[in-house]
Amino acid sequence: MALPNVIPILRESQAPRKRFGEESPFFAMPRLMSRMFDELYRDFMPTQFRYMTESVEAYTPKIDVKDTEKDIQVLAELPGVDEKDIEISLTNETLTIKGEKKSEVEEKRKDYYWAERAYGSFYRSIPLPCEVKADKAEAVFKKGVLSVLLPKTDAAKTERKTIHLKTAE
Description:
- By secondary structure, the protein is an alpha+beta fold.
- The chain has a domain at 63-158: Immunoglobulin-like (Sandwich), CATH 2.60.40.
- It is built from three helices and nine strands.
- The strands form three sheets. It has a four-stranded antiparallel beta sheet with strand order 3-4-9-8, with no helix packed on it. It has a three-stranded antiparallel beta sheet with strand order 5-6-7, with no helix packed on it.
- The protein starts with a helix and ends in an 11-residue tail after the last helix.
């Protein structure tokens, strides 16, 4: 008896990975079990060690970009980042924000000593919709929020195109 005749082989299109737009319970089981044990472990973990489950390495700052008639305003949320660890550059109509988030925790008690350091760098590159005056750009960092103001060039201020909508028949 040939082995291929005994073992059923599912092709990619036959695999029961998705059913009615949802993930199949069979394939979701490992992910759900992992999440269950993570939550169980977190509930029994002493409060001073809960910090260890948070990762600094996967940090990506949230960015808001506002295009007004006169300028482009960029707001970046950078909680826990020091001003000296932020680098802002403007090249080829692209604003780049780089930085590093550092965290150090140290706790001494009579029955244990705990110290942990976590570092993670971030990099965000934002393409600008028009030309800006790089020499007039301003950046302010206050209470964990970076605010960058990029004044538009005179040509970019006047260059506005309206697209007329036609109805299709």
